[in-house]
Amino acid sequence: MFSIDNILRENIKRLVPYSSARDEYQGEASVFLDANENAFGSPLEQQFNRYPDPLQYQVKKRLSEIKGLPIRNIFLGNGSDEAIDILFRSFCNPGVDNVVLVPPTYGMYQVSANINDVEARNVPLTEDYQLNLEGIAEAIDAHTKLIFICSPNNPTGNSIDRSDVETLLTNFNGIVVVDEAYINFSRQKTFIQELTEYANLVVLQTLSKAWGLAGLRVGMAFASEEIIEVMNKVKPPYNVNEASQQLALQALANVDQVNNWIKETLNQRDRLVLGLKDFDFVLDIYPSDANFILVKTTDARGIYNFLVQKGIIVRDRSKVELCEGCLRITVGTPEENNLLLQSLLNYK
């Protein structure tokens, strides 16, 4: 049975977190002489001379309303990458523990493992881009702390079978991280609804994709209260800056706008698939639950270089295991998609 005490690093159990200036008083205040800030203001129209809320209460309050779960189950980070790194630093002893990855998948899991000196045991997806449960079971040992699953998956675009993820959550005594960066574009429901069922579940989401806030770097993690407490303990004191908090809060008031963009993106995805099918050099287009498509071609590098010359940038994934010959193409605006298709008419 999962117990956080069994997988938490001993030094993190003993860790006394940094106490910021904004953590040490209760109630309202109007004069702040505690944090060595510039009391005169900022050389900007908007004032940023004060440190931000270290726990991002207002943003979490709005997310709580949207997601339908308590604030205590929400962590905000400087992008989802910070949440990934904090999970490694909280639960994996360098040079001792390991994690399981299921490539092809998001590359930062491997990078974070390398940075933290944690072995990554790769269990490739099946030919139809689903979990190899038998292979994962064989890879797990007493030092396996985390399993990372991206669903919808990047770069393949498909959702991972829900029952397979639930099998891991039920049988694995470490943490299963389900990265849902592209969930807004998916037919599959979020795993956030399962947090009360699985104490070892962490769900990652982001404001970078459907919400159009990639430049603000605001990532989200949803988990049990005890896991969130650990993540808040380990994170830097002011990890999400004031500008990002303010702008994220403004954006979160515009749910209807985002939903309209999602619908348009899905329409454009279908249109892009139909357009690309007409080209002889396109061998296959894989089903997608994301805002991109994975396209198997006769000459991925050649097409990539041709498009670069036209000022159009896609992602060459042809050297990634199980993605040989593939390009990953993000769904753009109607005008951008038109330009892509028109340019490819001249590819020979």
Helix and strand layout, with pairings?
Elements: H1 4-7, H2 10-14, H3 57-67, E1 74-78, H4 80-91, E2 98-101, H5 108-115, E3 119-122, H6 133-139, E4 144-150, H7 162-171, E5 175-179, E6 201-206, E7 218-222, H8 225-234, H9 242-251, H10 255-276, E8 282-285, E9 292-297, H11 300-309, E10 315-316, E11 326-330, H12 334-344
Helix pairs in contact: 4-5
How would you portray this structure in words?
It contains twelve helices and eleven strands. The protein has two domains: 4-20 and 53-253, Type I PLP-dependent aspartate aminotransferase-like (Major domain) (Aspartate Aminotransferase, domain 2), CATH 3.40.640.10; 256-344, Aspartate Aminotransferase, domain 1 (Alpha-Beta Complex), CATH 3.90.1150.10. It has helices spanning 4-7, 10-14, 57-67, 80-91, 108-115, 133-139, 162-171, 225-234, 242-251, 255-276, 300-309, 334-344, and strands at 74-78, 98-101, 119-122, 144-150, 175-179, 201-206, 218-222, 282-285, 292-297, 315-316, 326-330. Strands 1-7-6-5-4-2-3 form a seven-stranded mixed β-sheet, with helices on both faces. A four-stranded antiparallel β-sheet has the order 8-9-11-10, covered by helices on one side.
CATH topology of the largest domain: Aspartate Aminotransferase, domain 2
Residue share in β-strands: 15-25%
Mean pLDDT: 97
Measured on Cα atoms, how large is the radius of gyration? 22 Å
What is the CATH top level name of the largest domain? Alpha Beta
Structural class: alpha/beta
- Kindly state the percentage of residues in helix: 25-40%
**Unreliable sequence segments:** none
